[in-house]
Amino acid sequence: MSKTYYWLGAAMVFVAAFCFALKGIFIKLAYRYEIDTISLLTLRMGLSFPIYAFFAFRLTAQETNVRFTIKDWLWVAGLGITGYYFSSYFNFLAFNYISAGLERILLFTYPTFVLVINAIFRRKRVTKLQMAALGLTYFGILVAFLQNIEPGQQKNLILGAFWVTLSGLVYAFYLVGGDKIIPKVGSQKFTSYAMLAATIPTVLHCYAVNGLEIWHYPPQVYWIGITMAIVVTVLPTFALAEGIKRVGAGNASIIASIGPIFTIFLATTILDEQITALQIFGTLLVLVGVFLISWKGKK
What we know:
Blueprint: H1 3-21, H2 23-31, H3 37-60, H4 70-94, H5 100-107, H6 110-121, H7 128-146, H8 154-185, H9 187-210, H10 219-247, H11 249-255, H12 259-270, H13 277-298
Helix pairs in contact: 1-10, 1-12, 2-10, 3-4, 3-9, 3-10, 4-8, 4-9, 5-8, 5-12, 6-8, 7-13, 8-9, 10-11, 11-13
C-alpha cells in the first residue's frame, strides 16, 4: 500500500467526518422555517434517492456483481430501514429539544452500544480497559449534559437526550447487523440499497402525517434539503466507505472522532450556541473513551 493511497483514504474519512458534523447545523437552520421533522427527513431522503438509485444500478451492472438471495435482500432492507429511517427519524426529532453540540456528543457514544450489544448477544469479552473507557465516556456525557440544564428546561433537554440516545442505540444495532452482509455485497452497494430501502417508510410516514404536503415552505428550506442530500448524506457515505477500504475501520474510527469537535465549533459560530469550559472538558472525556473502545475493539 502506497503512502498516497493511505493518506488519500485518511483525507476521505476526514471529509466525511466534517460533512456528517454539518448535519445538525442544517437541521437547526431548517427548523427556523417551521418545517416538521418527518417533512425535513423526507426531503433529505427523497432528494438523495436518485443519486443512490444511479449508483445502485451502476454497481449492480458490474461484472463482479454479487448475486443476492431473498434472505440477503430482506437483511439489507431491514438494516437500511433500521439505520436510515428509524435512527435518522429519532435523531431529527431530538433537534427540536437540544443543541447541535450536545446532540453530537450524545450520538457519538454509539460505539459504546456496539460494545455492549456484542457482549450480550455475541458473547464477546469486554476487557478491563473497555470497561474503564465506558465509565469515562458516560462520565464525560454527565459533565457535558449537566452544563446544559437550565431552570424550566429539564423536560425538553431530557426528552431530546432520550431521542438521541435511542437513535444511537438503533444505529448500533444497524452496525452490528451489517458486520457480515457488508463484506459480502460491498460497502458502496450496501449503502445504496440500504438508503433506497429506508426511503420507502420515510415517504409513507410523511404521507400518513401530512399527505406529502412538503412543497409550501420558503425556498431556503429546499436549498437546505438539497445541501443535506448531497453534502451531508451522499458525499460522506461514499467517502467514508472508500476511506475505510483504504485505511481500515480502526484507523477510520479514530480519524472520524474529530466529528464532535467540528460540530461544536460550527454550532458556536453559525448557530450562536454557547459552549463552556466544562462542556469542552466533557466532550474530550467522551472522545477519549470512545477512542479507547474503538481502538481496543479493532485490535
